[in-house]
């Protein structure tokens, strides 16, 4: 009988041999798609594959992971209830507080790890811990290999990251962040490109050094948050030089429509801006060029569904709810029906995209933000991305802002906005409130703006803190 490690290694070998993970790289630059076999797989075959992999990961978790056996038994779930990938909704939703409880009781990683594989982790990832105790993820050889494959698919196909191209990664290079050097740079090497691991969190302290790198290395593809993209572009114009970037990869938050327009103005050499949604633990969806706001999901990698966050029941098609995800190839630390906390519309498109013929499903609209970022003003449900879109229409702003959330049901929208004007008069303030009000559907009298100078909004590393929670903790 095979050991757990032997079974794990056999699955890894199978994934490589069947072509789910490409092993002959870099490809010829003439190849348009990184992995044509998988990316254009017929829907019928893709759904069979999802069913097979869902059954496999559920059985694996039941057989090898103490956490899932206990959790699922307490909820009345057993693996034989899964007959088809659509049965994923029968699996109990797993939330972060359950992981934290398990981690505290069974440090350092909790009982959600497969014990035999926990000793062979190649990379440890962790959430920021901004809402409590950080949760950790362990990546073994299989998980690393598959995630690098998933990264290479969009980098090569959408962003033209190929031999002779220079890619600069200005995401987080520290703090156990999985999209940093351990994975994204390795995906660069698969593509044959030159990788610069800059680190967005160091930009503010090493600004001159980073700007020099951009100019000297003629960076082709630049990856960071929409806000740092804009800040760098505007500072370059103020200093009298142009950024060399041809492709902008927008990570860390959905980019509003007007934000993209501003980015093209401050980055005059950019021809393409692509939204990249993802999580530290390895979930991702990538905007398909030419299909604004439609983010493709690699369905051989994970299954998404959408629930009402109050009841955990599936929402109807077209309704909005909380995004739930199941990673199909994470065996060291399975994440099955795990709540990601993002607020999305339950509408997915399955027709092949017209440019590449990719058959994997796409979000019908962007992922606007996290469930906990939802707030109300005079009963109007809002998210930061709606505010951001409006702010970009206000003259002389930098696009940087902080929403001050002081209650669950607010009477006023209180917001801090950066302006380049030395003085803000009543007319400017009134016009700004009217623009915001018209865009988000509330009265100008229900908006209170705190005007600040450039650089005075709150950031955390390379991310603008668009949502400042000032509610009293219970």
Automatic annotation (TrEMBL):
InterPro entries documented for this protein: AMP-bd_C_sf, AMP-dep_Lig_C, ANL_N_sf
Transmembrane residue ranges: none
Domain annotation AMP-dependent ligase C-terminal: ranges: 379-471
Swiss-Prot/TrEMBL keywords: Ligase
Molecular function via GO: ligase activity
Keyword Phosphoprotein: no
Keyword Acetylation: no
Name this polypeptide is given: Fatty-acid-CoA ligase
């Amino acid at each position: 009988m095979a050991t757990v490690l032997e079974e794990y290694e056999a699955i890894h070998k199978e994934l490589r041999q069947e072509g789910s993970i490409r092993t002959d790289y870099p490809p010829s630059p003439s190849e348009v798609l990184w992995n044509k076999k998988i990316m254009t797989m017929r829907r019928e075959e893709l759904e069979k594959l999802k069913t097979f992999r869902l059954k496999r990961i559920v059985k694996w978790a039941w057989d090898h992971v103490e956490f899932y056996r206990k959790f699922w038994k307490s909820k009345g779930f057993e693996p034989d209830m899964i007959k088809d990938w659509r049965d994923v909704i029968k699996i109990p939703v797993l939330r972060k507080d359950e992981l934290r409880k398990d981690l505290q009781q069974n440090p350092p990683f909790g009982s959600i790890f497969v014990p035999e594989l926990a000793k062979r982790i190649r990379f440890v990832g962790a959430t920021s811990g901004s809402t409590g105790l950080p949760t950790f993820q362990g990546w073994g050889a299989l998980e690393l290999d598959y995630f690098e494959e998933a990264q290479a698919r969009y980098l090569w196909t959408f962003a033209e990251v190929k031999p002779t191209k220079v890619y600069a990664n200005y995401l987080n290079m520290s703090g156990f962040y999985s999209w940093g050097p351990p994975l994204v740079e390795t995906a660069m090497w698969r593509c044959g490109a030159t990788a610069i691991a800059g680190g967005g969190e160091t930009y503010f302290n090493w600004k001159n050094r980073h700007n020099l790198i951009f100019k000297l290395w003629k960076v082709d593809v630049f990856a960071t948050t929409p806000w740092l993209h804009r800040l760098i572009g505007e500072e370059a114009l103020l200093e009298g030089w142009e950024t060399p970037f041809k492709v902008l990869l927008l990570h860390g938050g959905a980019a509003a429509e007007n934000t993209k327009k501003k980015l093209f103005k401050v980055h005059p050499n950019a021809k393409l801006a692509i939204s990249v949604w993802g999580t530290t633990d390895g979930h991702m969806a990538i905007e398909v060029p030419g299909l604004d706001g439609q983010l493709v999901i690699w369905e051989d990698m994970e299954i998404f569904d959408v629930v009402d966050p109050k009841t955990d029941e599936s929402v109807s098609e077209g309704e909005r709810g909380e995004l739930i995800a199941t990673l199909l190839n994470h065996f060291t630390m399975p994440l099955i029906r795990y709540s990601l906390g993002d607020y999305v519309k339950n509408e997915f498109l399955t027709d092949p995209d017209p440019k590449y013929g990719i058959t994997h499903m796409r979000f019908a609209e962007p992922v606007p933000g996290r469930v906990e970022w939802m707030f109300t003003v005079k009963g109007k449900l809002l998210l930061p991305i709606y505010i951001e879109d409006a702010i970009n229409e206000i003259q002389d702003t930098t696009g940087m802002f902080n929403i001050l959330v002081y209650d669950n049901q607010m009477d006023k929208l209180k917001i801090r906005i950066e302006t380049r004007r030395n003085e803000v008069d009543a007319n400017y303030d009134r016009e700004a409130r009217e623009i915001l009000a018209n865009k988000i559907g509330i009265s100008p009298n229900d908006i209170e703006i705190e005007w600040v100078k450039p650089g005075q909004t709150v950031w955390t590393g390379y991310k603008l803190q668009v949502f400042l929670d000032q509610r009293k903790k219970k």
